[in-house]
Amino acid sequence: MDLTITVRGCDQCKRKDRPATRYTLTVEDGQKVTRDLCAEDAAPLEAVFGPLPKAEEMSPEDAIKEQILTLLEEGEREASARRARREQEHREQNSASAKRPPAKKAPAKQTTAKKTPAKQTTARPPGTKSLTVAEIEALKAEGKQ
């Protein structure tokens, strides 16, 4: 779906940040001149001719623009309300879980551990003899005597 938004700006000062009104002036020979003027640029004409009748109250483009802006504002308000509800529910859940006692856990399953031989952490040069604990104690006892 394509959507076209038309913004009416002042034909005189070219500013699009001010609301502009469409005026149609008819010259003596019947030729019509239409201009979009902001209140500031229409003031000199209204000073000379008095209050000028507007060509139309609101163009279809302006009506659509107004509807879109209204829908966007409503959508933003609804999103804000949804966000607030979610935050409130989250707070309530957190406070409820803080009051609740911790859940009991099932006892852990006991398994028998497989014994694996200990790995040597130091490398020995080739030809080095390994000693048992009993042999080391015996050597210590000999050295003390």
CA radius of gyration: 45 Å
List low-pLDDT spans: none
Order of helices and strands: EEHHH
Biggest sheet character: 2 strands, antiparallel
Say how many strands there are.
Answer: 2
Count of discrete alpha- or pi-helical segments spanning 4 or more residues: 3
Beta-strand share of residues: 5-15%
Instruction: Enumerate the strands of the largest sheet in spatial order, edge to edge or round the barrel.
Output: 1-2
Keywords:
single chain, 145 residues, 10% strand, mainly alpha, two-stranded antiparallel sheet
Please tell me about this protein's structure.
The chain has 145 residues and is mostly helical. Among the domains are: 1-57, no CATH class; 58-99. 43% of the residues lie in helices and 10% in strands. The protein is built from three helices and two strands. A two-stranded antiparallel sheet has the order 1-2. The radius of gyration is 45 Å and the shape is elongated.
